[in-house]
Each structure stands twice: as structure tokens, then as C-alpha cells.
Amino acid sequence: MRNTGNQKTDKKRQFKKLPYKILLGTVILALFLLTGCGASAAGKEKTGRLQVITTIFPPFDFARQIAGGQADVRMLLKPGEEIHSYEPTPQDIRDIQNCDLFIYVGGENDVWVEEILESMGEQAPESLRLMDMVEVFREETVEGMQEEKGAHDHGDAHGEEEHDHEEEADEHVWTSPVNAAEITAHIAEAMAEKDPQNAAFYRENAEAYIGELKRLDESFRCLTEGAARKTLVFGDRFPLRYFAEEYGLDYYAAFPGCSADCEPSAATMAFLIDKVRQEGIPVVFSIEFSNGNIAKAICECTDAVPMTFYSCHNVTADQMQAGVTYIDMMEDNLAVLEKALD
Questions:
Q1: Measured in whole angstroms, how far is the alpha carbon of residue 322 from the centre of its chain?
Q2: 180-209 burial, b if ≥16 CB within 10 A, otherwise e?
């Protein structure tokens, strides 16, 4: 994922490190001001259509496939924006309060969500948390991977402080098509319950979309089961553990999935270059919105070629305008994966 610069990274860390009472007080004040600026007593602005808001692209895409134009679906993350640099605005908070169904991921990057929903009290919308819908893995540091120092340091064997399960959980649950199908089913049921008039329509759309996700899963499974190799190398973050676990793939990467680091150590670079040379790895991946410099540097020292693998957390403005979907990006992943495992 793209390095948005030290200034944004530091700002995000400062936001996360604000004392709980200060942060919560800021949220409550924002809600008070917004309520005083026109929110109804019920906390909802009804348009006659189901209002669904998501934090990021995958649940947004699942919900719009289910909606089929019969509900208003919007995501807070702007097209082209990197997930780890997002910070909610007062308008975002108001939009959450006024929607019928709010869908978020959970985990460390969504701590602000939990605080805001709690602050809203009875005015909080019904919400769905992706990490409650599937089995959750812990983020892991594999051999050669540079550990982030500071905000995302997990402790345990690498430090004295042991964080709780929530902080260690890998948030990127949507990267497995199997998980995507389960998530879609949960979202469809929630939408059907909130909008009984269109319930049958939503369920029919969800069934069709889940069928497409299952066909995608079968394609990945067929490719990986018959592949000549089972190892991927990422000159970038690795937010794809759920994908790798689903299809029995090994991986090496510069950083964990939620790392804020952007410059690998000399030891990490040397390890990845040696791994690519020793195993004859044909492709080194980077993630969308990344500058790809680490992958390119590894490729310059080896016979590998750099390619992009989508984590699907967001799309560009052009992709959004063109109606690009989660399945579209995963099909692109299928094509590059075939070259990487050859």
C-alpha cells in the first residue's frame, strides 16, 4: 500500500495515541455540534431508500452488488485514498449517525469506529463488523520480514508488552474469496431485515454474487493446487494472509500487512533478494497504491519481474467511475498469480 509520507503517518499515530477520554470527548463534542445543526430527533435522515455506509471498498462493493440499485450505498474512504491514512471528518460522523446500516472491518484501524458508535448511544445505526463474520487470524511476522518499531510493535517474543487479541488480529479478512462469500451473505441478511420490501430482491442478488465468488475460489484453487511452486514474494506490505492461508501458499515480504514502515532494512532487502535468487522466483509483487520501489529494486538484482497484486481495499477514481468490482481485481490477481507460480 502507498506510502503517504511521514507527515500523514505521524498524524495517524498521534490520533491513535490520544488518551481515550480526550478522543472520546472530541467525538461527543462533534456529535453534539452535528445534532445541533439539523439532525432529526431520531438521528436519521430518511430518503425512502435503505441507506448503507461502509468504511472501505470490499463491503461497499458487496453491498452494492446486493442492492442492485434499490438502496443507496456509499463508502467513507475516497477513491484513491490509502486505508491507513484515513481519518473521519465531522461530516463522516454525521453520515454514519444518519444511515440505516453501517459496515466496518474492526481491528486496530477501526478503533475510532467503536468509540464513535458507543458515543452515539441510542442514535447509533445498526452496524456490522466484518471481523465478527469469519475466522480471524493473527498478523504474523515471517522469516526475513522487517518488524515495525513503534505503533504496531506486537511485543511477545520481540518486546516486553503483550497486546491483546484485538490489536494483533489481521484485519484484511476480505482477501479470501471464501470469506468474501460469507461476508456477502451476512450483509444481505442485514439489508433484507432493514428493508423487508426489497428483501427477496437482495437475497436473490446475494445468491448470484456468491455464486460468482465461488467460481472465483474454484479458479484460484485449481491454479494453486496444480502450480509448480507455492511461494510468493512481496517487496511491500503483505495484507494477504487470509488469501495465502486459503490456498496453501507460502510468502515472504518486506513488512507485515498493517506496517507503517516504508523503508526496509539492508538485512530485509538482502534476505528477499537471496530468496528470489535461490528459489528462482519469477515475480516480485507490490500492492496497489504503492510506488513499487522495493519490488523494482529486488528485480534489478535478480531475474524476476515486478507486478501488482490487489489487496482490494480501495480503487482509483477512474476504477470507481468504470465500475470496477472486487471480482474484477481478483481476476487480475488470478492472471498475475499464474505467472508467479509458474
A1: 21
A2: bbbbbbbbbbbbbebbeebeebbbebbeeb
Cα–Cα distance measured from residue 249 to residue 271, given in angstroms and rounded to the nearest whole number: 19
Could you say which residues of the chain have pLDDT below 70?
1-47, 147-167, 257-262
Question: Under DSSP, is residue 33 helix (H, G, I), strand (E, B) or coil?
Answer: helix
CATH topology assigned to domain 223-340: Rossmann fold (3.40.50)
Please say whether the beta carbons of 137 and 163 come within 8 A.
no
Residues of each domain in the chain carrying CATH 3.40.50.1980: 10-37+50-131+172-213, 223-340
Q: Nearest-CA neighbor of 306 among 286, 289, 333?
A: 286
What are the φ/ψ torsions at residue 323 (nearest 5 degrees)? 80, 25
pLDDT tens digit sequence for 286-336: 999 999 999 999 999 999 999 999 999 999 999 999 999 999 999 999 999
> What is the C-alpha to C-alpha distance for residues 288 and 279, in angstroms, rounded to an integer?
25
Cross-strand pairs, 74: 53
Strand order in the sheet with 71-75: 71-75, 50-54, 101-104, 126-129
Give me 110's grid cell. 477501526
Report the phi/psi class of residue 59: left, alpha or beta, with left for phi > 0 and alpha for psi in -120 to 50. Answer: alpha
Contacts of 290 (CB under 8 A, 6+ apart): 1, 2, 3, 236, 237
User: What pLDDT shows up at residue 107?
Assistant: 87
Question: Nearest-CA neighbor of 84 among 26, 15, 23?
Answer: 15
Residue of 111, 48, 52, 41 whose CA lies nearest to 76:
52
Cell 513503534 -> residue: 150
Supply φ then ψ for residue 267, to 5 degrees: -65, -40
Alpha-carbon dihedral sign for residues 302, 306, 312, 316: positive
**Angstrom distances, CA of residue 242 to CA of 92, 129, 277, 326, 338:** 29, 17, 26, 15, 18
Beta partners for residue 232, in sequence order:
251
* Domain spanning 10-37+50-131+172-213: CATH 3.40.50.300: no
> If you average pLDDT over every residue of the chain, what do you get?
84
